[in-house]
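Task: sequence design from structure.
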């Protein structure tokens, strides 16, 4: 079974993060400040080895240990994330989104699929 991985981000809406959210700006026109919104980041599709490497950036040592899926924001290795996107440039925008959202009180959850 091949594993794919993604990050689910959940947090409070604010106008200054609209450009980092999942939908175009008009969709958020009537969204209240502080309303809880969510989005999916990364979507690692290259398979188990890369998904496992990716998980470790977030402090998830065993991707199938559901106890580790809620990510401690202090456990995110942003330096390793920057190195990761140097090689896998298609994930660069999501890395930027994650950094911005982490500064705006979002929480993150690792989600393996496969």
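Answer:
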């Amino acid at each position: 079974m091949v594993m794919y991985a993604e990050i689910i981000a959940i947090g409070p809406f604010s106008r200054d993060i609209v450009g980092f959210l999942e939908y175009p700006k008009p969709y958020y026109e009537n969204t209240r400040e502080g309303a809880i919104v969510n989005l999916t980041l990364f979507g690692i599709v290259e398979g188990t080895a890369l998904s496992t490497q990716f998980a470790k950036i977030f402090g998830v040592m065993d991707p199938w240990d559901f106890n580790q899926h809620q990510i401690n924001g202090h456990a995110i290795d942003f330096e390793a994330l920057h190195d990761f996107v140097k090689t896998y440039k298609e994930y660069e925008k999501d890395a930027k989104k994650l950094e911005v959202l982490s500064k705006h009180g979002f929480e993150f959850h690792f989600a393996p699929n496969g």
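Residues 92-103 form the longest helix (12 residues).
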